[in-house]
Amino acid sequence: MIVDQDNQRVLEVLENREKATVLAYLQQAKQEGLLAHVEEVTTDRWDAYVAAAREALGGQVAITIDRFHVMKNLQECLTTARRELQRPLPAAERAQLKGSRWLGLTNPENLTTAQRQELQGLKQQFPQRKQLAEQREALRALFTNRKIQSPAEGRRHLQAWLEQVQALGVTSLKKFCTTLHNWLDKIAN
């Protein structure tokens, strides 16, 4: 799906997500003037999208990896990390955590008062769970921080966040840290 984010409208729904299809559309739209003034392309981490945008629109266009997909990737790794932390716990403690996955993956403002209290209790009882939740919220806060004014500044904040997460030593988060490191410049955009 090709979307004009400035005007909040769908420009085209392509038949597939192959690079050739995306590239052909972008090249034609650029020739017709539809994309003549594009300054930034926002995409997920699909290499074909990034390559097609770069090839069709040139090196002067900023490529930005959208925060939705970054957070989605983190959430998947957090679910694996939660399981990793739960595995060695005694059965009674594992039972306390059963069914609490969504509490840690839901934005706090979307939780009911009772759910927030339940999550707070779990964080107090399981400090590693608290650390994971804090890191999730810290990354979310970076994406909404209006004081970050440039990609370079965003990169510094993301790098600092990355170092904090790596210091936790949670094996399941290594994959996300590698992904973040590999795409750091485009995420910082």
Describe the model.
There is one protein chain. This protein starts with a strand and ends with a helix. Strands 1-2 form a two-stranded antiparallel sheet. A two-stranded parallel sheet has the order 3-4. The chain is built from 10 helices and 4 strands. It is elongated. It folds into 2 domains: 2-65, no CATH class; 67-188, no CATH class. A hairpin with a 4-residue loop joins strand 1 and strand 2 (9-12). It is mostly helical and 189 residues long. 16% of the residues are buried. 63% of the residues lie in helices and 8% in strands. It has helices at residues 19-31, 47-57, 67-86, 91-97, 101-105, 113-125, 127-144, 151-168, 174-182, 184-188; strands at 2-4, 9-12, 40-43, 62-65.
Task: Report on the biggest sheet.
Answer: 2 strands, antiparallel
Discrete helix count: 10
| Count of DSSP strands | 4
Portion in helices:
55-70%
Strand order of the largest sheet: 1-2
Total domain modules? 2
Shape: elongated
Please write the string of helix (H) and strand (E) elements: EEHEHEHHHHHHHH
Structural Rg: 20 Å
